[in-house]
Specification:
Blueprint lengths: L4 H13 L4 H7 L4 H14 L2 E4 L3 E4 L4 H11 L11 E3 L4 H11 L3 E5 L5 E6 H8 L15 E2 L12 H10 L4 E8 L2 E9 H16 L1
Parallel strand pairs: 3-4
Antiparallel strand pairs: 1-2, 4-5, 5-6, 7-8
Helix pairs in contact: 2-3, 5-6
Length: about 210
């Protein structure tokens, strides 16, 4: 986040003399309290300053990178999950390849007749299956998919950073977001490496505003 010259001055004043009231900060800058209100609100929401009733503003002591790290660690899965792409367990490998191509995704989730998760198909799975001389239209996806309980899943209230660690440590492209039902795990979303890339781009844009 790029701070204005006045916002930087406010931080220096609070660093030196905090806790200090908004009125006293305004006096030091020869400005009105109303003029400073937007700057104080931005600095407080961004985490550079904190405020206590009848006490005033004080400096949190955190750098921009520390604040950004804290912000990322608070994100939940449901804030960034994308629409999942699934195929029925009865479809063929050929159909799965077609779906992956048309939907432009790196991971397909396989569901049963109750729309519950039973497997996962990656690009590598489909590539390995297509390297032989077999008739792909005659091979059902359960033969090549990864099955439960060897599937990494997450819930909507899980921390996004924890899912990112799983993507890296398990060397997978995507994780299904699920919820428990009487029939099994229903897929309600997905988190992928692309999700994390988009998040980094958004944070970079926000940091320049």
């Amino acid at each position: 986040m790029d701070l204005s010259k006045r916002q930087q001055q406010i931080i220096e004043i609070v660093k030196a003399d905090g806790p200090i009231t908004g009125e006293h900060i305004a006096e030091r800058l020869t400005l009105t309290r109303a003029t400073l209100r937007p700057d104080l609100a931005i600095l407080t929401m961004a985490g550079f300053l904190d405020a206590r009733p009848r006490v005033g503003y004080f400096y949190t002591g955190k750098t921009g990178s520390e604040l950004l790290t804290e912000k990322i660690k608070r994100y939940k899965v449901h804030e960034f999950q994308q629409v999942p792409v699934a195929v029925n367990e009865k479809v063929s490998v050929y159909d799965a390849i077609s779906t992956m191509f048309l939907e432009d995704v790196g991971t397909l989730f396989v569901v049963d007749e109750n729309a519950c998760l039973v497997g996962v198909l990656s690009r590598k799975d489909l590539l390995r299956a297509s390297m032989g001389r077999q008739d792909l239209s005659s091979i059902p996806v359960p033969i090549i998919m990864t099955r439960m309980p060897n599937i990494t899943v997450c819930r909507k209230n899980d921390l996004l950073i924890d899912v990112a660690h799983q993507l890296i440590s398990r060397q997978i492209d995507g994780v299904p977001v699920v919820k428990d039902t009487k029939n099994g795990l229903e897929i309600i979303g997905r988190i992928t490496k692309t999700t994390m890339t988009k998040l980094l781009v958004e944070l970079t844009i926000e940091d320049k505003i």
